[in-house]
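Work Package 3 (structural annotation) set out to generate three-dimensional models for the target panel prioritized at the project kickoff. During this period the team completed the workflow that converts sequence records into discrete structure tokens, so that structures can be stored uniformly alongside our sequence database. As a representative example, we reproduce one entry of 279 residues exactly as it appears in the project archive.
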Amino acid sequence: MTLESFINPFKAVKHPWVMFFVGAVYATIAMFLAAIIFKDHSSLIMVFLTVLAAVPLMYKTMKMEEGADMRINDEVKLLKRHSKVIKFLLFFFLGLVVAYTFWFIALPESVVQSLFSVQMDTIKTINSDVVGNVVSPFTVFLQIFLNNFKVLLFCLLFAFFYGAGAIFILTWNASVISAAMGEFIKNKLADVASVNAVHYVQAFSLGLARYAIHGIPEIGAYFIGGLAGGIISVAMINRDLETTHFNRIMLDSINLSLIAILILVIAALLEVFVTPILF
């Protein structure tokens, strides 16, 4: 596959920033193909085509990290290695978000409504649930954490059952975040009498910062959970769970899952107590 040949996980570990451009290219190609060929269902097809391009990279990454479990005995060294993988995956996710958001702002409104219709309905549902149920900061924190924890479980389970399946959940989240960012940026620009390039840059930067404060650790946690599930999935395929490496593989996956949960707690605290103060 042409898109698959862009990069492999071994190169990505050494040059993680390249994954930003890979994510942007994957998202852009998927978006235009969906808009042209599958216009009536483009909001979901766009996500599917992005995932289709990313699956080979994700699966190779899972295999690479499961192989590391077999070679590295020191859990601390193993977690440090995993952190390099999470870093390039975060760059990839950021590329998706920036590309989706850019086209959300740049394309005609009729095209945007078609490409992001399901995502915008999802945002409305989330906002109505929050407004209707929240009575205290702790309630907000608990609701956000439980929702994020549910997404983490989906990432872990999708990775376990489908190998690289977690990338579907993460790409869907990237498209929803991009729609929310796009709306935020458009609202900021609507307050400006005469819009120029500087205003676009300012609004885009502000929108990115608004969601990045809690979004980066949150998405990092999802990738960590997906990696944990993917490692077990690959180990089962390779029958490595039937060897003496069983304890090491399971310990690594459990540690990754616990780290992901801890990061989600921090992300929820940031979303409730820090982001509203700044924005």
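Residues 3-278 form one domain.
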